[in-house]
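Example record for the data management plan.
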Amino acid sequence: MAETSRDALLANYSPAVRDLAEQACALIQLLMPPDTPEKVHLGWKNIIFGERMVLAVGPLKDRINIMLAGAGLPDPAGLMEGSGKAGRHIKIRSAEALRNPALADLLRAAIAAGDAPAEERAARIGEPVAGHRAYGSKTVNVPVDRLFAAWVNDGERASWAAGHPLVIRGTTPGKSLRARWGDMPVDVRFEAKGDAKSAVTIDQRDIAAAEEAARIKGLWKEMLDRLKAVLEA
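Corresponding structural encoding:
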């Protein structure tokens, strides 16, 4: 495994991403035992914690990901994303997200799971996400609470998503919601980008065919364009 230093890896990224990665590493080091080894893999572009990877930090162009070993970890706040059988990731775009108590709880759960016997770790492995997926995202020049309200208010949602079978099943105000599109689950996440700017990200799963996933992705683009137009009018 090609290893290098953390500084050498992060030198390839913007100051904002480097700062987020350093803060994430500091949080992980605070939560893990003091003697936990850290390895940097330049090829994978990850900072890995644990003899057997328990947590890892991966810098990207405009954010970082925190990777967790174990797909069956308790995640009541719905922070984890991904479809792997043995792991998930959390997208981090701001220092505020790193201060979320739910994130610390999830990292502690991952650390505890990593210390468990092999049989117990195997029992925590989740099933891979079935089928195809459709993603969508949009940044809107309104506060995050206003963006969230446009989703959860039935009348407002009809103004930009009319005719599409979206049924909301649960919400975390200003943060996320769970919905169904027919028999397909939809996860929606909201992020404040400032006092008057916010972003929404959609992940729709269990789509039967690649062609249908492409069609649904196009529908989401149309709906998000309408949503932006309605909110910024």
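Summary line stored alongside the record: The two ends are 53 Å apart (CA to CA).
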